[in-house]
Structure formats: structure tokens, C-alpha cells
Amino acid sequence: MKSKIYYKLGNWKMNLNDVQSQEETKEISSYFKKSIDLNRKSHESWHAYGMINYKVCQNKIQNESNFRPSSLDLEYIQSALKGFIKAITLRGSFKEKSL
To answer: Which H/E stretch holds residue 41?
Structure first.
């Protein structure tokens, strides 16, 4: 139950306005991370975690004319990929179980 609350809180904050600041991003990411820590099998939480990290990368690329990834940027990229891959994997196993 707590996992869903953190997931919904993160979604609410992410959809409330266009996330721009690092503080907002870290806060939202922490909600999805807490949701994942409480329920490692939640494909929704993993997808949302991937999405918030993807949005950070997308904003940086759009706002910087000569974008060159730093080590911090690479962490966001890795987290986005990890979240998306885990969500796809879990979603696939969920579909197989329901058939």
C-alpha cells in the first residue's frame, strides 16, 4: 500500500508542472525510488522512475546547445535505461502470468 502512495505522489508532482529544477527532480525521483524499494515488482514505479530520469536528460539536451554528457548526466541516462528495462521485463512477466 505504501508503495502505491509514493508512486501516486511522484506522479502527481511530476504532472503538476513541467519539472525544471534539480531539487524538484530529486524529490520526485526519491518518491519513485521509495515506491520501488517497497515493491520491487511494480512495473509502474520502475517506468515512472525511468521517465523522470529521461525527462532530466531531455531537458538538458534541449537547453544546452553544445550538450556533452557529464558523469552526473550519465547517471541519469543509466537510471532511465534501468527503469525502462525493468518495467518492460516486469510487465512482460505480468502478462505471461495472467495468460
So the answer is: none
